[in-house]
Design a protein that fits this description.
This protein has 204 residues and is α/β, with parallel strands linked by helices. It has one domain: 3-Layer(aba) Sandwich (Rossmann fold), CATH 3.40.50. It contains five helices and nine strands; from the N terminus they run ββαβαβαββαβαββ. The protein has a seven-stranded mixed beta sheet, sandwiched between helices. The N terminus is likely disordered.
Amino acid sequence: MPGVTGDHYFTAEPTSAAQPREIEFSVAGRDYTLVSAAGVFSADRLDPGTAVLLRKGELPAADATGPLLDVGCGFGPITCVLATAAPSAPVWAVDVNERAREFTAANAARVGAAERVRVAAPDDVPADLRFAQIWSNPPIRIGKAELHELLLRWLPRLAPDGVAWLVVARHLGGDSLHRWLVEQGWQVDRHASQKGYRVLRVTR
């Protein structure tokens, strides 16, 4: 994985030197310049799957009130785009990686959303909180059992009329994940396919 040496992006406390670097990308006509670091998912660029998700998923409306959730936030590109698209909505950014959380918080400040972005370890999200939208480029490489456990933890946190947007590479099991979600009782629509990625729209 680019930018990851001794640490994995799902390491809780990376020990490699951070070596911060700027990442530039555009979504929905807005340019972003965020800061990433070694030991964080896709440290050297906007991950291609994340790019497809942000391009093909339906971003929240400007008047959306949330709350919104980014699962596996990395350095925060999804969080920052959601916070910009919905300037009144609180956005929760969750990651097991301490360095990822630090950089997400810094990037939220960069886009003027520090007061609305709550960066948290998974266990620090209030148990009774329900989300209008959940967005994730889930960490496929943690393994199928762990991935299923992660989704079974967060998807039930959708509000009754909520929607989750997921992106998964087809060659890493995008279609089998689609079938598994259906087997778990979720409504799943393959909303888009681009560059080998599936964008899945998941509802109750």
